[in-house]
Amino acid sequence: MISPRTPSGVLELLPPEQVAFQRMLDAIRSGYERFGFLPIETPVFERSDVLLTKTGGETERQVYFVQSTGALEKARAEDGEEGLPDLALRFDLTVPLARYVAEHEHQLTFPFRRYQMQRVYRGERPQRGRFREFYQCDVDIIGSGELSVRHDAEAPAIINAIFTDLAIGTFTIQVNNRRLLRGFYEDLGITDGDVQAAVLREVDKLDKRGADYLRTTLTGEGFGLAEPVVERILSFVQTRSTGHEDALARLAEVEAGSAGSSALAEGVAELREVLALVRALGVPESNYCLNFSIARGLDYYTGTVYETTLDEHPELGSICSGGRYDDLAGQYTRSRLPGVGISIGLSRLFWQLREAGLIDASAGESTVQVLVPQVDPELLDDQLALASQLRHGGINTEAVLDGGKLGKQLRYADRAGIRFVALLGAQEVADGTVTLKDLRRQDQFTVPRDEVVSALRVELAQPLV
Length: 465
Description:
41% of the residues lie in helices and 18% in strands. By secondary structure, the protein is α+β, with helices and mostly antiparallel strands.
């Protein structure tokens, strides 16, 4: 016999854990929809020439290619060699979004506000907390020709709403601007784009490796930057604001110390407008700050950038990130499609929260709210009618069909995480009542049959203490 085993690099959950995961998905979806975003889904695979707009790099080495046996045999017969398969699994949701917007541009209303929550695939070496198959939950606002920087303020408001709903601890949305960064390094004389990119990659590791590591690296042979320059960089990238007014003061300091870079001035102006609207959108000052070390991907983001961390668990790193980009679909259309978006890698986040003990998924409740046991086989029709009544009332109900000892059925409900048991025996049928047993509170009470739905709704709406 073949030994059953899960492939490496996937997050496969037992039902209680899946319930907890699904509730996080639902909270994120609800948050996106409250802010006026529309859902889309794209195929799990894309054409290889669309997905791999840049070949030969790290992305291609991580892609899972897709080809049916028949198509592969046909390609070999025609070309005399295997060649590149026509299809590949998506490695993120951004490239499919770019293809989607470029293809349906004239059928969409702009700004196009979309959310997408689907699995993506990367063929990287599986590690703890890093998966080859994982959920991404993305939201983006795409403009046609232009998109006001005011939309950049929506991302922190969305993040604040979702992570407040998830109730996984206090968090901070860290904000920066790529134009400001570019201008700062230009003022220091670091004008070469490749050198800037290399410096930013090292700066992005500041929180993980510390200031001494960064100082040694930037003054070393690889960069050879002068010590006064490195000290200015260190002072700059360790900036963290402590409130809204402090953030504005930090921006004023950076602007006052500039040698006149237009990029820095643009970045400061954009951040001022974004911060003003973030406050207007009701995000508490304690939940956002400036962090001049955040850069994100240099080749992609061009303006505002975000990273979100849990205050009490900084070791988890960023749990939600994103930013502004100038041109979403330049590889697929001549139209200019700027946008701003954020992404939550939910599989990794769920795994991290579970490992940190912030989610007790093993104790998750069932999605089944009520069990209707078989108290008396002669009353099966009545019991099934009760189950149907509860379902029509919007209550998730499981009915026992096989019977057996009532004690065994009650133990099954308890182990399965079902909170309520609706007992319908001969006495209840005669009296027109139902006995409800609350397994969580170890309590039971009897209600009239025609009031059972409303009684359960009241009980389910009350939080367990």
